[in-house]
Amino acid sequence: MTVSDDPTRHRDDGSTIYAFADPEVLVACPRCEARAYVRGEGLGPRRLVCPACGLTRESGRTTVWGEPVDPWFRLPLWLQAPFRGEVIWAFNDRHLGELRAYVAAQHREHGTGTTRSTFARLPAWLTAAKNRDQVLAVLDRLAQR
Predict the structure, then answer these.
(1) What is the pTM (predicted TM-score) of this model?
(2) Which of 12, 36, 62, 67 is deepest in the core (most CB within 10 A)?
(3) How far is CA 99 from CA 27, 93, 94, 113, in A?
(4) Residue 92: which domain range?
(5) pLDDT at 2
(6) Cα 61 to Cα 44, 67, 74, 126, distances in angstroms
(7) Are 57 and 45 in contact (CB under 8 A)?
């Protein structure tokens, strides 16, 4: 994951989606719908904490990846928005920033062995130049959330 000093370029270092979930994922609290956190390290169990209502829960070890929900509790991600029948989502501010940098870049560099990287697996509608301005507008609105 490399946000370049040159906003027209993005270099993919091959990091997978799992790297973006550390150390926390932002979710909507299932009790009060405020912003809550799923915190932990690696792929092991996590803890759900809501600062607004005080809810806490411990997760199991089973995870599900690739949807606009957190992998441990399957709660809706805080950073998600609809886009033309699809959903744009990010686990946290770092993930959102990298996603924005990638979409904004006119030159995207992929290193060797990056076929499992987060950016190599993004859907075409999200990365298409024809959608760039609209996707960036959605990402910028999410950053304000």
Answers:
(1) 0.90
(2) 36
(3) 18, 10, 9, 20
(4) 2-144
(5) 45
(6) 6, 17, 12, 30
(7) no
Q: Residues 49-92: pLDDT tens digits?
A: 999 999 999 999 899 999 999 999 999 999 999 999 999 999 99
Residue 16 is which amino acid?
T
Helix (DSSP H) and strand (DSSP E) numbers for the chain: 4, 9
C-alpha–C-alpha distance, residues 79 and 126, integer Å? 15
Rounded Cα distance, 5 and 24, in Å:
26
Element (H, E) at 140: helix 132-144
Distances (CA, A) of 92 to 1, 77, 106: 14, 9, 24
**Of 74, 67, 76, 68, residue with least CA distance to 46:** 74
Q: According to the 3-state scheme, what is the secondary structure of 71-119?
A: CCCCCEECEEEEECCEEEEECCHHHHHHHHHHHHCCEEEECCCCCCCCH
Distance of alpha carbon 128 from alpha carbon 122, whole angstroms:
10
1 to 4, 98, 105, 137: CA distances (angstroms): 9, 7, 13, 22
| Distance of alpha carbon 7 from alpha carbon 107, whole angstroms | 9
Domain count, the chain: 1
Tell the residue number behind the tokens 């799923």, with chain if given.
Answer: 38
